[in-house]
Amino acid sequence: MPQILVQDLSKSYLVSEREAGAWGAVKGLVRRRRRVIDALKSVSFSLERGELLGFIGPNGAGKSTTIKILSAILRPSSGRCEVEGLVPWRDRIRHVARIGVVFGQRTQLWWDLPVIDGFELLRDIYRVGEADYRKSLDAMVGLMHLERLLDQPVRQLSLGQRMRCEIAAAMLHRPAILFLDEPTIGLDAPSKLAVREFVGTLNRESGVTVILTTHDMHDIEALAQRVIVIGNGVILADTSFERLRAEVLTERRLFIEFAGAAPALAIAGVKVRSREGNSIELAFDPRQLPAPELIGRITAEYDLLDFKLEQPRIEEVIAHFYNLHGATEA
Amino acid sequence: MRVRPYLTVFRMRFALMLQYRAAALAGFGTQCWWGFIKVMVFAAFFRGTLTRQPMNLAQAITYVWLGQAFLVLLPWAADPEIAEMVRTGNVAYDRLRPLDTYFFWYVRAMAWMVARAVPRCAMMFAFAAILMPIVGLGDWRLRMPSNLEASALFAGAIAGVVLLSSALVMLVNLACVITLSERGANALIVPLVLALSGSIVPLPFFPNWMQPFLFVQPFAGLVDIPYRIYFGGLSGWVAIAGLAQMFGWTIVLVFGGHRAMTAAMNRLQVQGG
Asked: DSSP code of A78?
C-alpha cells in the first residue's frame, strides 16, 4: 500500500459569471449564469514513503487543488484518495496532525506575534511534548538559520526570512509528509537556495515525503526525482526529471555569425529560427543530425566569424510542452 | 476533545488583544459620552411621566452604565480576524489544524471579546461607580448590586453573556464564510442586537403584550436579563429562569452553529494560489 494514493480524483467548481458593464450587472440581478469548471479530471497517482515529487503545470492546471484535497481543505467531487490509510476529508483532524503544509502565497504565522510565540502556539495546537518540541525547534533553527529571527514579529521579516520560518513552522510536529505549494514564489536567489537545501535535507535525512508545486524549474531540477506535469486538470506526464528533460529537451540551438551576409540555409531537419544581417539562429535535433556534422557542413560552404551552441532554457521547453498539450491557461 | 490547545488559543488571543490600550481608552471615552446622553434621556423621561414604570430612575441609570461597561461583550460584528481570513483565503490554514474548527473559532471570538471588555469594564466601574459620587454626581452613578444573591447571579449571568455572545458571533462568522464577506452579516446583526437585547431601550419598557416573546428570544440574554438581575429587577426563580434561558440558547446556538459549520466547510472553495 503506497503512502499516498490518488485514484480518479475529480473536482469541479461552480462559478458565477456576469456580462461586462452596467447592463450585465442588472441582468445578473435577475438571472445568474453559472459555469462548471473542472479543475481536476480523473487524476491518479501514488507515492511511496520518502519520495520527493515535483508537481508542475501552468497556472490553473490543478496543482493547488490537488494539494488542497490531499490536505483535507477541499472535498473532491469524486474519486478516491488515501494518505497513510486515511481519507483526508473524512478523518480530517487525525489526518492533518500527520502532515505539514506550506502555501507560499499565504502565511500561517501570526502577523503581530514574534516567531517563537507562533511556534509555541503551534506546539500546543499539535500537542507536541516539550522534549520533542525542543528537539524539532533546535533542528529547524540550525538548518534554516533562524537564531536571530525567533524574537522578531512576523510582520517585520523579509519574504525570504518568513518563508524559512513558515517551513520550520510546518515541520514542528514532525509530520511524515510535507506539502509545499509554491514555496519559492517571490524569493531571491539565496533564499531559494536555502529553501531547496532545507527541503532536500528533510527528504534525504529524515525520510519526509514531499510533494512540491512550483513554477521554478530549478526547484524541480535541484530536488525532484519524479515529476508530474499537469495541465487542464489532467496528468500529462508522470516521469523522472531526467526522462522529462531528455524527451522535451532534445532540441539544440545554433547561433552563427558569418563573415558576409547570412545565407538562406536549407538543410533537411534544420529550422531557421531567425536571420538578420550576418547572423542566423538554427534549431535542430541532434539525434537526427549531430552537431559536429551540421557545423562541418556549414563551415565547408561558408566563412564563419563565430558560433555558439545552446540548449533551450528549461522554462521555454516546459512552456512548449504545455502548448503541445493545449494546457496553457484559457 | 482535549482542552489544552483551545486554552492556548484563548490565552494567545487574549494577550494579543490586551495590547490595544489606545483603542480601549478611546472606547471608554466614547462610552462615557453616550452613557451621559442616555442617562439624561432617562432623566427627562422620568420627569415627564406620571405613570408607574417597570424600573425607577436609579435602576435605569445603573442599567445604562452596565450597558456601557459591557458594550464590547455584545455580538456587534464578525470576528475581524475570521473576516480577514475569509477575504484572503487563509481559512485554508485553519482547516489544517488538528482542531474542531467551530470551537477553534469560538474560543478565539471569546478571547477577542473578553480581552476588550476587561479594561473597558474596569475603567467604567471606576468612573461611574467610584469617581462620579466623589465629584458630586452621586445621583447619576452606577449603583452596586442590590444584594449578595443578585451579585452571585450576576456573576453567572456575565459568564453566560460571554458564552451566548460568542455563539452569536460564530453565527455571524459563519454567514461571513458563506457569503465571503463580513459586510452583509454585520449589517444584519447590529439592528437585531440594538433592538432585541434591550441595549437601547430596556425590554420592560416595550408594550406588555410583547413581554413573553421578548423574554424568551436569545438576544434578551445579552443585556436585559443580566442587568435586571444586577439591580434586583429579576430575582429568585425568575432570575434562575432567565439564566436557564441564556444557557439554553447558548447550547442550541452552539449545536446548530457547529452543524452549519461542518456543512459550510464541506462546500468550501478556496480558489487561486
From this structure: E
Instruction: Give me the residue from B88, B89, B95 closest to A72, CB to CB.
Output: B95
CB atoms within 10 A of CB A215: 16
Is A35 touching B (CB cutoff 8 A)?
no
Nearby residues of B208 by Cβ (< 8 Å), 6 or more positions away: none
**Band of the pLDDT at A330, cuts 50, 70, 90?**
low
Q: Kindly determine whether residue B16 and residue A107, on different chains, have CB atoms separated by under 8 Å.
A: no
Q: Quick check: is A30 in a domain?
A: no
pLDDT digits (tens, 9 = 90+) for B33-83: 999 999 999 999 988 888 888 889 999 999 999 999 999 999 999 999 999
Is any Cβ of chain A less than 8 angstroms from the Cβ of B216?
Answer: no
Q: What is the CATH number of the domain that holds A60?
A: 3.40.50.300
The total domain count for chain A is 2
Model pLDDT, residue A318: 76
The verdict on A64 touching B (C-beta cutoff 8 Å) is yes
**Helix count and strand count (H, E) for chain B:** 12, 0
Q: What value does the mean pLDDT take over residues B19-40?
A: 91
Same domain, A61 and A208: yes
A255-301, pLDDT tens digit by residue? Answer: 999 988 888 888 888 888 888 889 999 988 888 888 899 999 898 88
Q: What is the DSSP letter of A183?
A: T
Grouping H, G, I as helix, E, B as strand and the rest as coil, residue B14 is helix
By DSSP bridging, strand A99-103 and strand A177-181 are: parallel
Highest mean pLDDT among A55-69, A273-287, B24-38: B24-38
Distance CA B32, CA A244 (A): 71
Number of A:B CB contacts under 8 A? Answer: 74
Task: Give the range of the structural domain holding residue A196, as residue numbers without chain letter.
Answer: 49-247
Q: What are phi and psi of A302, to 5 degrees?
A: -125, 160
Using CB atoms, pick whichever of B2, B100, B268 lies closest to residue A74: B268
Output helix, strand, coil percentages for chain A, rounded to the nearest 5.
35, 30, 35
Mark which residues 79-108 of B lie under 8 Å from A by CB: 88-90, 92-93, 95-100
Q: Which three cell numbers stand for residue A274?
A: 531567425
Which pLDDT belongs to residue A3?
93
List chain A residues with CB under 8 Å of B2: 127
Indicate the pTM of the whole model. Answer: 0.86
- E strands present in A104-181: 177-181
Residue among A73, A96, A181 whose CB faces B98 most closely: A96
**Claim to verify: residue A148 and residue A273 sit in the same structural domain:** no
- Tens digits of residue pLDDT in A132-145: 999 999 988 988 88
B-chain CB neighbours of A91 within 8 Å are none
Same structural domain, A105 and A221: yes
Residue B49 contacts A, CB cutoff 8 Å: no
pLDDT per residue over B183-221, tens digit each?
888 999 999 999 999 998 999 999 999 999 999 999 999
Residues A63 and A208 in one domain: yes
CB contact under 8 A, B4 and A127: yes
CB-CB neighbours of A328 under 10 Å = 15
Considering the domain architecture, whether residues A69 and A85 belong to the same structural domain is answered as yes
Sheet holding A4-17, edge to edge: A33-47, A4-17, A78-83
Residue A31 has a CB neighbour count (10 Å cut-off) of: 8
User: Do both A121 and A270 map to the same domain?
Assistant: no
What pLDDT, on the 0 to 100 scale, is given for residue B269? 65
